[in-house]
Write a structure and sequence with these properties.
281 residues; alpha/beta; Rossmann fold; two-stranded antiparallel ribbon; 10 helices; 16% strand
Length: 281
């Protein structure tokens, strides 16, 4: 019996692994920036990253709902949290919940778990149930002007797969147009700019509001962002819908689900999961 035990345990472990995989409802792609220096006006910069709750709370809910997650960044580098987001205030003032979510995020972004955009595009997106773009200011650094991000989003758009983004994450949607870099350069220069063939033109959506951005800028000691995301999305042709500052707000239009700010994390997760489940039926 003792000789048989190791083999028996191996079989049980294999069976458990197969069962877990088979039980998955599908794989959700999570797009993040791995950059950490947000450019400001006059060549200044601000240390940034993803917001812990904006990534971790929906990710945790997706896993509990039966979905597996694949993490992707433009270069395949590990994404890092904005240190300002590691704060219990974003977790209903519960330090234990914050640490629990941090462990979920650390596991998801562990060495070897992060793919590059080139890898994902080469493999295709047919195997993904949907895509999720967390916020923090990091997406402003290298996502809206990235043509590969645009190619990725177009694949999900064509198949009508749920596409969710929260806080500053929706800024990545601007990549899904012709010449996204030119559009972003116009925003930075403060020049009038129009999108060409933006796949989300006319969609109802939300993003971090001007009022919230102005409040954030008070922490920059007089420095300013290169442009306000809400104004950029409106200029591109998004039908913007905002709640009062710091109030949870989620907007759904067709396959697109957007959340306004960090406090929209639970509501966005619930709406996104419902859309994923509905798409499977």
């Amino acid at each position: 019996m003792k000789k048989l035990l190791p083999g028996l345990l191996a079989v049980i472990a294999l069976a458990t692994s197969v069962t877990t995989y088979a039980a998955s409802k599908g794989n959700v792609l999570v797009l993040l920036s791995s950059e950490t220096a947000l450019p400001l006006q006059e060549g200044k910069s601000y240390a940034s990253g993803f917001y812990l709750n904006e990534f971790g709370v929906p990710a945790d809910a997706l896993i509990k709902a039966g979905y597996s997650l694949t993490i992707v960044t433009p270069k395949g580098k590990k994404p890092l949290p904005d240190e300002h987001s590691i704060d219990p205030m974003y977790f209903a003032n519960n330090p234990q919940e914050m640490q629990r979510i941090k462990k979920v995020v650390d596991k998801l972004t562990a060495e070897g778990n992060v793919k590059s955009l080139n890898q994902v595009l080469a493999q295709g997106t047919e195997g993904y149930a949907g895509i999720f773009i967390p916020g923090g200011h990091a997406p402003l650094i290298d996502l809206p002007g990235n043509a590969d991000v645009g190619a990725l989003l177009r694949q999900f758009h064509r198949s009508g797969k749920p596409t969710a983004a929260i806080c500053h994450g929706p800024i990545a949607l601007l990549a899904a147009q012709e010449q996204p870099q030119t559009f972003e350069q116009g925003l930075i220069a403060g020049a009038p700019a129009t999108t060409k063939n933006w796949i989300y033109a006319g969609y109802k959506m939300t993003i971090f509001s001007d009022a919230e951005e102005q409040a954030f800028e008070t922490s920059l000691n007089g420095e300013k962002l290169r442009y306000y995301p809400a104004q950029a999305m409106a200029q591109a042709g998004g039908k913007m819908a905002f709640a009062n500052a710091w109030q949870a707000n989620v907007v759904k239009d067709r396959e697109l689900i957007t959340g306004q700010n960090p406090f929209s994390d639970h509501a966005l997760a619930k709406t996104f999961i419902a859309a994923l489940d509905s798409k499977k039926r």
